[in-house]
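Recall the central idea of this unit: under ordinary conditions, the amino acid sequence of a chain determines the structure it adopts. In this exercise we apply that idea directly, starting from the sequence alone.
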Amino acid sequence: MELPQLFVEKMKSFLGEEYSDYEACLKRPKQNGIRVNTSKISVEEFQKIAPFETEPVPWTENGFFVGPKEQPAKHPFYHAGLYYIQEPSAMAPAAFLPVEPGDKVLDLCAAPGGKSTELGARLRGEGILVSNDISITRTKALLKNLEMFGISNSVIVSEEPKNLVPVFYEYFDKVLVDAPCSGEGMFRKGSSEIKNWAEYGIEPYVKIQREIILDAVKMLKPGGYLLYSTCTFSPEEDEQLIEYLLEQEPGLSLADMPDCEGFDRGHAEWTVSGLQEVNKCIRLWPHRIKGEGHFLALLKKDGSPASGRKESRPARAVISEEAEAFLSECRLDLDRDRIKEHKGRLILMPKDLPDLGRLRVLRHGLLLGEMKKKRFEPSQVLAMALSDSGYVRTLDLSLSDDRLMKYLKCETILADEKEDGMYLITVCGYPLGWGKLSKGRMKNKYAPSWRWM
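Accordingly, the structure predicted from this sequence is:
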């Protein structure tokens, strides 16, 4: 792996005698990690059933290192949404944003969903998570990951940040901006990141970051918290970006973040004005920790939040008898006044959601299912949002049951349950999807796009 000479010189000036350690770390394999979905299972319970060896990630309570030979994506627990596969350093931003149940939270540059899934899990189904990414292609991956995690109160949007401001002005309690950057902290990944740096440098990203962060501040409530992060070492994108933001927004101040072994702090000498407050920021160097490079800054907006805005409530949906009968069998708290109908699809809208106007929205909330002629087809998403006892009829499959893999491959399976009808299919008690039993044969309702390959 040959690094650009300009980058080498810059890193030597940053690290001094540590540069040789940094250079050596790039030759080591990247560190793999998983993060437990605490909205479905506690860390303690997961450790009892973990299918591979794990080692705790120091900077987050529910993150674990996994060995290079492990294949966490090739296990049914992954398909049950019990964990997310994530590079360990990338777990830090969502871990350090102080999200609480009931908050209104924005993940502004959210795809493919690693940080959004953690933010959503920490909301515990209360409040709202708005996850946005400008790329419609990447947003589709974001949508699937949030659905697999069973996040029921999310809104997935694909817009430029400036288009969100009129709709969400001073609306959010917490905002996360994991900004597009030059990616210097990811050089261990390989040549594409290095080639991109050599071709574009850092200047285009600085311009984008400044625009994004100023829009993000406009959407933050007074008294709210904003976490800015990058995966680069460039001071222009890190300390100097924070310096610029504080100059433009004097109502912001840097907040403290917890320390951890191997962490570095922001460097005042790397700012234009020698701003001492940046020592509250955190730098993660890949030669000091088991992970890639990252930068984090937590900021608070002065003032107290104004009184809440009136939410946009849809007209009460007309629900078919079949849909009503099915939903009555789900053990899920459903506010009928928040159910919206669109072309036969029933969607449970998050509480206190404003009118989204002409925004490009991929999902407004929890898709319950689709009303069809004389039947109701529940969604895969609804299954993932339920608990193991979330439906009156359940077929639980063990890890050793041959039917488990057949189900995940969308094949018909056999079952000796006495009552025909729709069943929630689970693995070790954790939902996977739906099946419809008729005379001992379970018609597979698992989402074809989620099929085990």
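Residues 389-453 form a domain with the Archaeosine Trna-guanine Transglycosylase; Chain: A, domain 4 fold (CATH 2.30.130.60).
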